[in-house]
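Morning!

As promised:
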Amino acid sequence: MGSPISWDSRFARRATRITSSTIRELLKMAQQPGMITFSGGLPAPELFPAEAMAEASARILREKANQALQYSTTEGYPALREWVAAQLPNTQPDQVLLVSGSQQGLDLLGKIFIDAGSAVAVESPTYMGALSAFNPYEPEYLTVAMDEEGMVPEALEAVLKQGPRFVYALPTFQNPSGRLMSLERRQKLVELAGEYGVPIVEDDAYAELYYGGQKLPTLYSLDQQMRGGGEGNVVYLSTFSKTLAPGLRVAYAVGPRPVIHKLVQAKQGADLHTGSLNQMLVYEMVKYGLQEQLSKIRETYAARRDVMLEAMTQHLPKGVSWNQPKGGMFIWMQLPQGADAVSLFKKALEQKVAFVPGQPFHADGSGQNTLRLSFSNADPELIREGIRRLGRAAEEELELVK
Amino acid sequence: MGSPISWDSRFARRATRITSSTIRELLKMAQQPGMITFSGGLPAPELFPAEAMAEASARILREKANQALQYSTTEGYPALREWVAAQLPNTQPDQVLLVSGSQQGLDLLGKIFIDAGSAVAVESPTYMGALSAFNPYEPEYLTVAMDEEGMVPEALEAVLKQGPRFVYALPTFQNPSGRLMSLERRQKLVELAGEYGVPIVEDDAYAELYYGGQKLPTLYSLDQQMRGGGEGNVVYLSTFSKTLAPGLRVAYAVGPRPVIHKLVQAKQGADLHTGSLNQMLVYEMVKYGLQEQLSKIRETYAARRDVMLEAMTQHLPKGVSWNQPKGGMFIWMQLPQGADAVSLFKKALEQKVAFVPGQPFHADGSGQNTLRLSFSNADPELIREGIRRLGRAAEEELELVK
């Protein structure tokens, strides 16, 4: 009985779509001393409200341990459901489900909506983690071309005509592109999706991270306006990971009651409920310290974005282009056609700087000449030095494609 | 656009298997003032080490906030992986995956092993939550008859011959039956599963809750012994929910590296990782206070079990039978054939006492005359009064079947 078991032959068919991207493997190479990394979408840890959380967690565990440490309902901590509902237009607490990070929201949505072979519409590029969440349910992706204003309406309509199970959109400071969908495009998306009867999943993790400019209405709120009431066509996801702390794994899904009800049932089978202490801690924090926390984050990240953009202008060679995001954590960069971001990545590692090559954000396998830079997690001095290094690597790479 | 959307027609096929059991709906009726409830498998909250956790969480958030609040690896907190590995024979930390409750371990195992129509072997009765976890992957269940010593070998072999994807077993103080699989049956199970090439999923949530008697070896360790090394055929699940606190949602899966590797990839898409603070808090607690905590739990639960058994002898009518569990949280009760536990449940509610009818623990829909009583969550005085009330309800119910 000592012979090794061939597990691959025992796994379900979908297991072939449960894989690590080669990029994740590459990124492990970036864990070296002296590396400056713009790769992870990580919040700046020095901004975590650690002391306030230390006090709040101790207080909760002293005063409400029976609730914070016990099993709780799948739907989530009632006070936090109420808080979330109050942030959104025409929303009741029973339309809110607390989830273990937006990633779980995506997994559960995949579970209830995607059959093997179902079409799912995604932006191109889109959030890599959403593809990881949906892939086990074996969808076929329909990709929608974007420009700096978001999905191109003609491309979107062509895709909606093919009847996808839903369209997955990140309209606000998209991961990976940092793009902000314009108001006109938002209206068009909501209108077209309603017309074709295709639900929208709106992933709004970066909503609060705007640096000047006006906040645009969510797809969720626009859909309500257009319908003049009712529960609508949009499932809205957001998170406390970018505003408070990702390590707590608390996020939320909001939407039509039949969808939330089915998500609750799916979550019950998936992990019973999100950590009780975690939800209570988040509630204490949003109730007493969110605005101050947001001000700190916006000020710090805006300054880092500015430093990175300035350094890029100074150090990056001709032929490389990038956008000027109005919020979020990311700058999206294009190499000239023919240049390869993975090849650049390897050169950059030699220079001790890391980023994420853009191809895995593309469900259709395109985007070889794109890459994502995160500006939230390094201080200005390191950003300058890192971009200087990236400039050297980029010059080398561009030599090759001349 | 104001007309309501028919969501049911938009859901995936599997959504029809993502439902709440009628029992869960019934149990909501048990949330009334004055109700004595033996229904939930809830730890006694007065035993939670709340003060120690308050101190530990504050310390972690003051000294290691950058780690406790940040994204972390999918595999889990390294120190806790090491601790878990050290508890198990011949196990390395890279064979350990921290998960968000055993429930998530079950979901991820379903995801990587079950195709629509796959056979899965389960004990009869089995843990209801496992069925909820597996159902979305659309298995067909093969049920294995049990007696007080565990699965009956002949029934087991007949099922293994049908080539299930895995056999799911709760050998130690099973939920719901409280049964302890005998050593001989454990050996037989491991041997037969190896022979037929069927992996075992061992769910061992109650391992530490034994009240006297000797600890029996796990299926995981027996499999290793029989093989004389190698990674084996058993995926082992256990949890900190019953020993420390379920509200933290920290559990673990241990097994052959190819399985753990695939589970890690599946978990990455499902929720990125289990809460960082939660894992660090669990680590502090198991390192410094687990044995004391276990002593308290064992002493308290053993006393409650004894009180419940004594009260049952005193108050329950003839024709009703139950077992004498050597550990865990549950007593398993049988009504005479023809009597119905749901009908008894409704009568019990009138008497202000609740339990869980046994039918939803049966994948084949049998077990109408069975029910589960939990003794962990009520103090002795309430247990006596609750069983007195149950006795009255049972007499009424048995009148009907005479």
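The longest helix of chain B spans residues 276-315.

Hope this helps with the figure draft.
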